[in-house]
Write a structure and sequence with these properties.
With 122 residues, the protein is of the alpha+beta class. It has three helices and five strands; from the N terminus they run H-E-E-H-E-E-E-H. The protein has a five-stranded antiparallel sheet with strand order 2-1-5-4-3, sandwiched between helices.
Amino acid sequence: MSQLDSSIQELLTIDGATGAAIVDISSGMALASGGNPGFDLNVAAAGNSNVVRAKLRTMQEIDLQGEIEDIMITLGNQYHLINVLNTEATSGLFVYLVLDRNSSNLALARHKLTGVARKISL
């Protein structure tokens, strides 16, 4: 099992996690994914790469310095967490985590997501 696949498996142990992917921002391609969130995870990963690129572009247009850490999208029954990886070895990637809103603890999930994200390398 690759290091990326191991990271996906670790993300899926987070309470309420139904899907996870490690995604290339520029292409939208999921390098690794797993789980069953009830929708096509690869399509969602590609769509969320558009979200990350749009935010990066907006930051550049308004001359906002810094790096994106997280983007959170709340839905009626799910949380979608995007954790942008900013190390030299993982630049250009993000982690996409889907949580069931009724069975997850958002603060704890974000904490665990950050811990897993720090260990990801290519």
